[in-house]
Each structure stands twice: as C-alpha cells, then as structure tokens.
Amino acid sequence: MNPDVTIAIDAGGTFLKGAVVLSDGNLLPQLYVKRSSRSDSSAYEIAVNLVDVIKELAAGYFAYMQQLSSVKGTRFRFPRFHIGFAFPGPFEYDTGVSRIRGLNKYEQLYEVNLKTLLRSELTALASEGSAPEWMTQLAAADIRFGNDAALFALGVSRLFPQERLLCLTLGTGLGSAFVENRSIVSGKWGIPDSGMLYAEQYKGGTVDDLFGSRGILALADSHDARRQGEDVYHLAIAARQGNSSAIRVWQLYGQRLGEMLRPYVAEFRPTRLILGGQIAETHDLFGGTLSEALLPEKMPLHNEKQMQEHVFHGIFQLVKGT
C-alpha cells in the first residue's frame, strides 16, 4: 500500500512556510521551507510561488526517502500526495475561492479559484518532458484549504483530545476557534456560525481590529504610550522596563479582551484558553487582567510557542478527512 504524504503550507501575508507530514503524523525531519509569500503579486504569480514551494517539498521528500531506502535496503514506494494550505480569510475554504480584499495581502486573488489555478499549474508542469516521474502523482493530489487559526486549534487539540478549547491567535488581527473533542465547533453555545470571532462587534469596532496589533497600537496612542514608529514589540519592552503608560495599555488590553470573550466563555465553558502568535509572547503583561475579566469563569491560560508546528499538524488533520 502506498503511503499517504501531506505537503503542508502555511500561507501568511508575509511568508510561506512549508513542511511534509508523514502518514504517522510526524513531520519529515530537517525539511522546512520558508520564503516570501509575494502576496502583493498577481494571482498567477502567487500561484506559481505556491507551486514552487509544493515542488520543493515533494522533491525533498523523495530525496530523503530514496536515501533512507538505500541505507535500509528496502524498496521505495511512490506516495499518495495530499496538499493542504492554512490560508487567511475571508476565504471559501471548501471551493478554494478567495474573498480577501482590503487587507493588503493576496488582493489579486479576490474571487479567483486558487484550487483550480494551482491544479492547472501543477498539471502543466507534469506534462513537460523534463518533469520527474513523481510530478504526475503530485499534480493529481487532493488540495484542501483551511483557516489558519482553526488549523492551529486542530493541531493544539491533539495535546488535549478530550477537552473543550478556546484558541486565539494574536497577530495583526485576532484569529479564533472553538474546539471540542478535536473538532471545530460553530453555530451553538453562542458561537458564530462561522466559528470565528474576527467579524464580531465590540465597543463600536470589530474584534479583528481591536485585539490584534492594530488595536493595541491604537490603544497605546490614546494613552500617549509610544513614540512615532514604535510597534508592539517596543511597547512590551517599555512595560517590562516599568513604563507606567505602557503597563496600563497592556492591562487594558487584557481587560477588554476578557470582557469581549466573557459571554462566549460563559456559554461554551472551555477547559483551557490557548494563545498563539507573536502577541501571545507578551501574555505576562495582560494575562492577569484577562483572567480577572473572565470571572467567575476560571480556566488555565496557555501560551503555545510551537504555533507553526501546530498549524502543520492541523493541516494534516484537515486532509485526513478526505
């Protein structure tokens, strides 16, 4: 029986990050790709860039397995490929059609069927006379898309398989997912039908605008807590060095985040709150007021530092459903 191999790609607005997940769920050792996402390019150029990463990972897999087979004296078997993407939204994940617009990334993909575009490019490469034999299998691979925050949550859930989790990714905006028994939950217990909070309203703005870096910097500006050109990183340093204005900004951020989450937490009753992303690294500055704002609900707060690894495992979980 041919092994199943997942090519997992996290398509961020700045970088593409890729790995290979074997049929046992383990990442292929020492094979990791990181390159510019070129998300400001044309739809075709974006697709070509993604296909280049797919090819590089597939070639790396074949080189590794052929060497391993040679050392062990075993026969190398061609795999059955799956290709999975963690992609930002809004995006029609089932069909592969992008709805991203006005976010300064992947603008030229708006209303484009990326799955069709990728399939066309892979098929064209496989038909070339110089194409390696495995390119035919790669061109026929199933292609799946999932929300980046949801896939992070699925990846984390393997550590807590029988628990309810509320997972947040804190970066430029706020990504979120609710998980029960390793499955994404939506449309009940007060959770939006999308399963995500980014578009929900809080104090006259959207959750995505208020609780990512944009919101933190706006909060800092309203308290004169940063100088021109300083970002969230500098604001965290200032707070840790005892700057009272910066400390207050982080405390307010945690308080407001907790207030926003409180009704969802009260209905869903998660056993853990999981944080990922760059801003999660500053949880020591806002975690206290966040927990206080969630009272009387109490739960452990975890900062998961291996976010990228969790996303890759989430992609593996996604394609296992095919």
Automatic annotation (TrEMBL):
SUPFAM superfamilies: Actin-like ATPase domain. InterPro entries: ATPase_NBD, ROK. Belongs to the ROK (NagC/XylR) family. This is ROK family protein. It comes from Paenibacillus taichungensis.
